[in-house]
Amino acid sequence: MIALKTKEFLGTTTEHFSFGNYDISMVKYHKPVSEDWHSHEKYHLSLVLQGGNLESRKGEDIQIFPGSIVLYDKLEVHRNRHTAFPSENLNIEIDDSFFIKNELSTLDFRTSILKNTAVQFQLLKIYKELKIDDTSSSDSIHSSLLTLFSGYHKMTDYKPIWVDTIRELLCDRWDEFITLKELSEKVQIHPVTISRYFSKYFNCTLGEYMRRIKIEKAILFLKHTNKSLTEITFLCGFSDQSHFSKTFKLCTGFKPNEFRRI
C-alpha cells in the first residue's frame, strides 16, 4: 500500500497552489501509473475535469467520469484502475487546521460535502480563479471553499421524509418545469411549508436547485457527446441559447464552449 504525502500524487502535477491550511494541485495522467492501493495524508477533494477511471474502495467499484466529485477521508485506502488517457483532476488537500480555524467538523466529511448541491459549481469556480490568478483570486477561492461547507450542521440534522421525495422527483423530471403547486400535491405538504424550509434542506431556493440540475445534465452532454449548444439548450429545458449560456456561466464560471475545451 502506498502512503502518499501532501502534494504527492500518482499522476504528474502540472500546477500547484498553496493557501496555508489547504493545497490545490492540477494533476494529469498521460500514461499508466501504479494501480496499487494507496491513501492520502490529508482530507482530499477532487474534481475530474477530463478522462476518468474505475475506483475501488471498501468493497465497491465506482466509475468516475468528467464532472465527477471524489472525496477521501484522511488516510482512506482506495485504488484507481483503467484510467482513460488523458485525464486531469483538480485536487484539494485540506489540513485539520482548516476545519479548526473555520469551526467546521471533520465528521462525515464525504457525505456532507456531496449533499451540497453547489459543490461541482464551486469547484469549477475555484478552477476558473486559478486560471485568472490575480490579486482577488485567493479570497475568491477561499470563499468558494467555505461555501462547500455551508450548511454543514443543517445537513446533518433530522429532515422530514418529504425532502428526499422532492429531491427524487426533481432529479427524475429534471428536463421539465415543475411548479410549487405540483410539488405540494405530490408530497401532500402545504406549498408555504415547502417554500419556508426548502432552502434549509437544499441550501438554495427551489428555482436555483432546478437550474443546477439542468446545468449538471448540460455538463454531461458537453463532456460526453458532440451535441451542439442548440441541441443541449433544448434538451435541458432552456428557452433559448442565450439564457442557457448565461445560466451556465453563472453556475460554473465558464461559458459552455469554454467548459467543453477544458
Automatic annotation (TrEMBL):
Source organism of the structure: Aquimarina atlantica
Q: Which PANTHER family would you find in this protein's record?
A: ARAC-FAMILY TRANSCRIPTIONAL REGULATOR (PTHR43280), HTH-TYPE TRANSCRIPTIONAL REGULATOR EXSA (PTHR43280:SF2)
Record flagged with keyword Nuclease: no
The membrane spanning regions, by residue number, are: none
Keywords, ordered alphabetically: DNA-binding, Transcription, Transcription regulation
Q: What is this protein called?
A: HTH araC/xylS-type domain-containing protein
What domain of life does the UniProt record list for this protein's source? Bacteria
Matching entries from SUPFAM superfamilies are given as:
Homeodomain-like
